[in-house]
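Attaching the record inline, Q. Sequence:
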Amino acid sequence: MPDPLVSIAVITYNHEKFIAECLDSVLSQDYGNIEIVVADDGSTDGSHTILREYEKKYPGKFILRLSAKNQGITRNTNVALYACSGKYIAWLGGDDLMLPGKLKKQVAYMERHPDCRITYHNLEVFDSETQQRLYYFNNPLNSYQGDVSVVIRRGTFNGACST
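Structure, as predicted:
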């Protein structure tokens, strides 16, 4: 049985300085059955040019949704969502990175636990210029597990790009 398709939904706006490194981190995953859906919300900084270069360099791997004007994060996220066709969707901001092995581990877990609807992990927040770690998203004050009722009571404890 082939590995299930994973859609990586990349949400971006004016990430010219970061988008290539972001996409390279996705392309270097050790999980091969992926489609990369990039929804750009009307960038004005050259991001569209970079995205078209990646689409040309990796034919059939990218689905680009490039808006001519800025419509906001909610609409842009929905554009990405509706373009995804994978069994699973991994979310990523255009200025975020995926560490090696992320997709393979999360897919393997979900395939072993068919009742699981969402997986996530901690996030390292860092300064791009200095590469200095600023903090981890989950910390002792924000380290919860549970279902949606816990999220409602405590607030979000999983970062979008870990999901």
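The longest helix spans residues 47-57. The mean pLDDT is 86.

More tomorrow.
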